[in-house]
Amino acid sequence: MKIHHIAIICSDYKVSKNFYTEVLGLQIIREVYREERQSYKLDLAIGNHYVIELFSFPNPSERPSNPEACGLRHLAFSVEKISEKRQELVHKGLSCEEIRIDEFTGKAFFFTRDPDQLPLEFYEM
């Protein structure tokens, strides 16, 4: 029917919480600390749509997350004005690739990374 949410495990909860809420502007639905697991779980939304669960765990194992590594390639967010979004993120200190054009759709997009180097794509709709 549709994707319900995406789960992300971060290495530094405070840094990633700030990134996803302050830099990207996702809204907090709920934040829970699970004492038995020494783990935070932060539910985030874009508008009214629940989209990301951000987890922290003590000493999570590393996983390759380059765009061409086996596994999840990247997360993509749709935006209305690609140039403005890129400029906003650069102004907030992110290193963003140059805007490219999708050869199949003709739409503009660019990539950046979250604090754990997870590739993030912004795609103009």
Your description of this structure?
With 125 residues, this protein is α/β, with parallel strands linked by helices. It is built from 2 helices and 8 strands; from the N terminus they run βαββββαβββ. It has helices at residues 13-23, 82-91, and strands at residues 6-10, 27-34, 39-46, 49-56, 75-79, 100-101, 108-113, 119-124. The strands form 2 sheets. It has a 4-stranded mixed beta sheet, with helices on one face. A 4-stranded mixed beta sheet has the order 5-8-7-6, with helices on one face. A hairpin with a 6-residue loop joins strand 6 (100-101) and strand 7 (108-113). The protein starts with 5 loop residues before the first strand and ends with a strand.
Give a brief description.
This protein is an alpha/beta fold and 125 residues long.
Helix and strand pattern:
EHEEEEHEEE
Instruction: Tell me the number of strands.
Output: 8
Category from helices, strands and their pairing? alpha/beta
The coarse silhouette is globular
Helix content: 10-25%
Q: Helical element count?
A: 2
- Uncertain runs: none
Estimate the strand proportion.
35-45%
Distance between the termini: 21 Å
Spatial ordering of strands, largest sheet: 1-4-3-2
| Average pLDDT figure | 92
